[in-house]
Amino acid sequence: MTELLESAAGTGAPVRDMRVGIVGFGLRASLWKQVHRPGEGSEVVVVCDLSERGRADAAERIPSAAITSSLDELLGAGLDAVLVLTPDNRHAEVAVRTLKAGIPTFCEKPLDVTLEAADAILTTAFETGTRLYVGHNMRHMPVVVQMRELIQSGAIGEVKAVWCRHFVGNGGDYYFKDWHAERANTTSLLLQKGAHDIDVIHWLSGGYSRRVSAIGDLAVYGDVASRRDNSDRRMWDWFSLENWPPTEQVDLNPVIDVEDISMMQMVLDNGALASYQQCHFTPDYWRNYTVIGTRGRIENFGDGPGDFIHVWNTRSQGGFVEPDVKVEIRDGEGGHGGADPLLIAEFLRFAREGGATDTSPVAAREAVAAGVLAAQSLRSGGGTVEVPALPDELIEYFNNGQQR
Q: Could you say which residues form the signal peptide (predicted)?
């Protein structure tokens, strides 16, 4: 990669911004605001999108950037970094090419929607030596960071169990009116949406899933008769809290073959047990994590600024008792409780300098692997499925900061 941000100490020479490209200007395109900071270290110089609307949106928001439908043009633009923000089932198709071109690559989560595609991305990064970063922004969300800090401080002893309940109250608007509703594009929402939570479960517990099983159903949205091809619209065109109850949703995707409720069990390689429940037709929208250790447990009540993480260390009986410790969840500027700015800052630093990161390509792959195989279990009777591990040489490479 070109030498970047040379300090030119004593010369008075200006510091050069990183030249950054974006592939896919859709729902996660808001990340451009964190990248496009001319004069502050980075600038979006080219955007590639196959859709006319995506290109028009990019031209309106970043007038100084070159706008193209040609990935070859982007690859030849002399970039220092690139963000791959395409629909999930095209991540590997694009990321393999950007990595082969030697461009440090940010790949939005999940890595892809099949285990083979996810492994292809990691293998390409390993073989080329090009830096790979995966957009698991929840590793920067205050609620998750603070729960992990408590666990690592020894507040609840050794982790033995993690439970996650995800109430996806916006599920009908977010996932059942566009490409997310089709297995061909997502494999399952247990993977697509759950990749975040599976990764958090792994991170909090310090292990990866080696056996999984799941059950689930298309319990509500499959019976909704109102359907429409929404390819001419975006999610914010139809989103409204008035779209309630779920059985009265309108303009759902013509094809819906993913589940709207799923329940997953995991056995981790360190002996911890975990479960994940996801429902897309609840009235409320938040995540609840419970982590149980050998000396207590923690649980978040709300997952945003001003909500609280509770810690219990004292034995009691009877109903709900006040926790021994209450920790207020911090606030942050920017999307996802300040996680998005931190995520992009970490990626740009990593693309420029290398070094350790809070996110992990290996962990991202393990989240995809668990989600893919849980979906396989769900659709074949709910039996236990073994999760294959990565080759040791890839694990060693990525755990070593992508250094040989």
A: none
